[in-house]
Amino acid sequence: MLCLNKSALTICLYIFVYGVAYTQTVQPQRDLIKPFEKVVVTYSGFPGNTNDWISIAKVDSKDDASLAWYYTGGLQSGNITFSSFEPGEYEIRGYYKNEYIVRVRKRFTINDKDPDVTIITNKEVYLPDEAINVTYTNFMGSTADWISIAPHGSPDNDLSNWKFTDGKQSGTISFNGLKEGKYEARGYYNNQYKVMARHAFTVSKTISPQGGQFCRRALSTFYAGMGGLGSAWGRTPYEPTNMTPEGVAAMQGVLGNAIAALDAINNCISYDINKLRSLIQRLPMLTNVQAEQEIQAIIKELQALFLLLKSDCLLSLFGTGVHMGAAQAHAASRICQPAPMPMALQTVIRNHLNTASDQFSRFLSCAPGFPLSQFSGVPLNSSNSVEPHNHIMGVHTSLIWSISLTDCCCSCDK
């Protein structure tokens, strides 16, 4: 603005100085934070008053309520670290000059479990007094994270046999052998008593050979059920936060098939099938993100169990089924949508199909007539929105037939 005299210039400068508009942001390190993890808030665009402040409060609480708060110290941008909070829904709020007017807010969730954490023993059955090795992954890394071994069914605060992880996020801890009985290895964060991961095992004087042989019917049931697990996993991103009744019912159905699949080979792995049953029951109450995390955690746990077996056969069908199911669910999301599908989604589906192909190639000697080119031949760039899904279902049907007609039988150890 051009000012023609001193008084006008003064007015112009006044408008310029006091008309500054700030755009504030507050952001946690992630929208979904692990339990007992510190909350790191990054803020920017504040005016720089020494008494500007940032708080964390429960969602829907009054604007003058807070669980914890810090001054920005006159900084316009920076990071503030808050201690951990109980699982729940929270809000970061930004204020100016000791006021209670919220200038910016950001919602986040602290989950009640950590889907990335795993804990597993090197055997499912031990002899009495045989050393027990417990492998854990993706812990917080606190020096007060700890692992315990306790009798099955004992309280989660059982302290009869435990060790710290010494601040390692992943590692293996050896425990002395035990007398006969059923036990659990349990993982905890930061001196807390909430179990973040658990794994059951047995100590017995007589270790009988695991399982028998699994042939056509059991193998095709197993593959189809693992496909159901994968399709439930792949469907969750396309459901709204509060999932639709139709989506929930569809996922409950295919997860039920996964239970049948695991029952078909139940002598091979020590998996608590009640985890799947519980998920099926709770599914209507979960958000799509929570459902995705729980299904992914089950897939990771099962994969770890199958890796411990010497059965390349079962591991192959597990991987093929999960990734074929996920590819099918992703492709189904594009039916009656603009085609061709976005390149990013094509890449996701292609990666699932490639992994399924790699996994099934290990079973190929038992299905010599099956062409692996079926996996790569799915026309993901088709201008027909239905065609990719139909092709994937065709590959799935061919796999079912090949497995159900195989002359091979699998066992727990080959």
Put the structure in a nutshell.
With 414 residues, the protein is an alpha+beta fold. Helix content is 35%, strand content 21%.
Name some characteristics of this structure.
single chain; 414 residues; alpha+beta; Immunoglobulin-like; 5-stranded mixed sheet; 18 strands; 35% helix; 21% strand; flat; disordered N terminus
How does this structure look, described?
This protein is an alpha+beta fold and 414 residues long. The chain has 3 domains: 21-110, Sandwich (Immunoglobulin-like), CATH 2.60.40; 118-203, Macroglobulin (MG2) domain (Immunoglobulin-like, Sandwich); 213-411, no CATH class. The protein contains 9 helices and 18 strands. The chain has a 5-stranded mixed beta sheet with strand order 2-8-7-4-5, with no helix packed on it. A 5-stranded mixed beta sheet has the order 10-16-15-12-13, with no helix packed on it. Strands 1-3-6 form a 3-stranded antiparallel beta sheet, with no helix packed on it. A hairpin with an 8-residue loop joins strand 7 (88-95) and strand 8 (104-110). Helix 2 crosses helix 6 (312-332), helix 3 (245-264) runs antiparallel to helix 4 (274-282) and helix 6 (312-332) runs antiparallel to helix 7. Residues 1-19 and 207-211 have low confidence and may be disordered.
